[in-house]
Design goal:
There is one protein chain. Helices cover 69% and strands 0% of the residues. It is mostly helical. Helix 8 runs antiparallel to helix 9, helix 9 runs antiparallel to helix 10 and helix 10 runs antiparallel to helix 11. The longest helix has 14 residues.
Length: 229
């Protein structure tokens, strides 16, 4: 069985982009505890070396169909294991089969409601499925459990931004930065809101902050600003 451990989501390491994916999918995978299946193998107990190797092989080959089947096989034997539901959700998210990913993450949340990571993954899956309102509802539930995880507030900002609700989006990013001042993606999100509000001077100030934290994001935000002739 997979053994749950408290996950503390911090900083840029959990927001590394995966170049082959859309931005929303990048973030969804980056939010996965420790990022990859091989690291998650260290949490498995009572699993044969052969099965451990199978999981590692699925990740190495990018065989998400195989990983999904393997997770489903284990769930058929133990539907009360939140971690296998999360593993299945991860595989289905990789396959961009978001309705099933949502089902899996929702069951993980039901079984392990104190795991803030699962709430965040569920919310991001809703965003990827084009359901930002459900994402907001999910994140508000997460905040009833814990209010010290920057990613939760960041996703709240992203979800409100998806809905065109710019002030609540800005509030979400600011709360994320209150918890982690080096959260480059939150700075970028805030700058993007400023651009949409035509608050260009404030957005330009954020470009300067990002030049230190993440030059790539700084360049991306700079491109959104009106270009001087």
């Amino acid at each position: 069985m997979l053994i749950r451990k408290e996950i503390r989501l911090t900083g840029l390491a959990l927001l590394l982009a995966l170049a082959a994916c859309t931005p929303q999918t990048q973030l969804l995978f980056a939010l996965m505890p420790n990022g990859t299946v091989p690291i998650m193998l260290s949490h498995l107990e009572g699993v044969s070396d052969g099965n451990r190797q199978r999981l590692a092989d699925f990740e190495r080959r990018g065989d998400w169909e195989g990983l999904a089947r393997f997770a489903e096989e284990n769930l058929a034997q133990d539907k009360s294991n939140a971690d296998w539901w999360t593993m299945a959700g991860y595989a289905y998210s990789r396959l961009e089969r978001y309705p099933r990913a949502i089902e899996c993450y929702a069951e993980a949340v039901r079984l392990a409601p104190d795991e803030i990571t699962w709430w965040n993954l569920l919310a991001q899956a809703y965003r990827s499925a084009g359901q930002p309102e459900r994402a907001v509802h999910t994140l508000n539930n997460a905040l009833n459990i814990r209010q010290d995880v920057p990613v939760t507030f960041f996703l709240l900002g992203e979800s409100f931004g998806d809905m065109g609700r710019l002030q609540p989006a800005l509030d979400g990013y600011q709360q994320a930065l209150r918890l982690n001042r080096e959260f480059a993606q939150a700075w970028f999100g805030m700058g993007r809101v400023y651009v949409r509000q035509e608050r260009y001077a404030e957005a330009a100030d954020i470009v300067k902050v990002l030049e230190t934290l993440d030059p790539g994001l700084a360049a991306g935000l700079s491109k959104l600003l009106p270009q001087r002739k």
